[in-house]
Design a protein that fits this description.
340 residues; mainly alpha; 69% helix; globular; ABC_transptr_permease_BtuC; ABC transporter permease
């Protein structure tokens, strides 16, 4: 059985390359229509009565449209980041939340706040992207140097690393009286999204295009360093490039929205269960289901205790934790059966 060149562990489910050349299938069209319906529901969900007030249409374009667009872009970004991470590490349990990438982005935001008293969104985004890249590379380098016998240890290491970085951020925040910045970041919410405060999220479209252009090479990287190199792929350069794309997506989301846990874990695993691991054919599905997932969670967060709003990170964290446990149990079941 081939061993993972990064984690050093045997992978029970090697990437299976399926030829789904036809993207616009009936099921995909149904999924797109469902997301469009969720988008319409999102546009008309909220405490403010946009149909009964004189400035209703103005508020509709100032708040509702940007929020729905931000939901779609954010859902696609975090889902894609999780998908690329899982391919590179050959581990279904890896995503920005379970590798410490999110916590590194938060540390980057905190450092920016300390260096620049009133940082612009561009500065915050730059700090989050830079630290996300550094943190993700540290995680990958650690996995390449340490051979692990179980793939379940990989996310545990990432969670432990994230906890350490989170503790460092909390200590620095307390030391320099900047805890409010950390608290706002940990509570990922779309409540403050409005026109003029979300436009950087459109850079995610560029990230999506780049991932699609390099999809075949990233899929080969998912086969392991030895196989990818034998097929003419510069593995190290590709991992560095993929890490940069992940950092850009996660950093932008962290700066604009905040912490959104487990989205990159839920969506890629659902898609891979039915479609295998071909990045090019899975990418549209991952984007669409990522959009739908976060919109459902956001609609629930806005309506569960109306007129108040629950941070969407709480809904995502709850759902994601349940899915995370379910995936772990699903991976362990075949081993028990083989031992009988």
């Amino acid at each position: 059985m081939q061993k993972n060149s990064i984690t050093g562990v045997e992978n029970d489910s090697q990437p299976q390359l399926y030829n789904y050349n036809k993207i616009w299938t009936k099921s995909f069209i149904v999924a797109v229509i469902a997301v469009m319906i969720l988008g319409i529901i999102s546009l008309f969900t909220g405490v403010y009565d946009i149909r009964g007030q004189e400035d209703g249409m103005e508020m509709f374009f100032i708040t509702r449209v940007p929020r729905t667009a931000a939901l779609m872009l954010t859902g696609a970004a975090m889902a894609m980041a999780g998908l690329v991470m899982q391919l590179i590490t050959q581990n279904r349990l890896v995503e920005p939340t379970t590798t410490g990438t999110i916590e590194w982005a938060g540390l980057g935001l905190l450092i920016v706040y300390l260096v620049f008293p009133a940082p612009t969104l561009a500065l915050r985004m730059t700090g989050a992207i830079l630290f996300s890249f550094i943190g993700t590379m540290i995680f990958f380098l650690f996995l390449r140097r340490v051979k692990l016998r179980s793939s379940l240890i990989v996310p545990i290491i990432g969670l432990m690393l994230g906890a350490v970085i989170s503790a460092v951020s909390t200590f620095i925040g307390l030391l320099f009286q900047a805890t409010q910045s950390i608290e706002n970041w940990f509570v990922g919410s779309f409540a403050a999204v409005q026109i003029g405060r979300y436009e950087y999220l459109w850079l995610i479209v560029l990230v999506t295009i780049l991932i699609f252009m390099y999809a075949n090479r990233l899929t080969l990287a998912g086969l392991g360093e030895d196989v990818a190199t034998s097929l003419g792929v510069n593995y190290n350069r590709l991992v560095l490039f993929a890490t940069g794309l992940i950092a850009i997506g996660v950093g932008i989301v962290a700066a604009v929205i905040g912490n959104l846990p487990f989205l990159g874990l839920i969506v890629p695993n659902i898609v891979s269960m039915f479609r295998g691991d071909d990045l090019r054919s899975n990418l549209p599905w991952v984007c669409v289901i990522g959009m739908g997932t976060i919109m459902v969670c956001d609609i629930i967060s806005r309506t569960i205790i109306m007129p108040f709003e629950v941070p969407v990170s709480l809904i995502l964290g709850t759902v994601g934790a349940v899915v995370f446990i379910a995936i772990i149990l699903r991976r362990r079941k075949p081993r028990r059966l083989r031992g009988r």
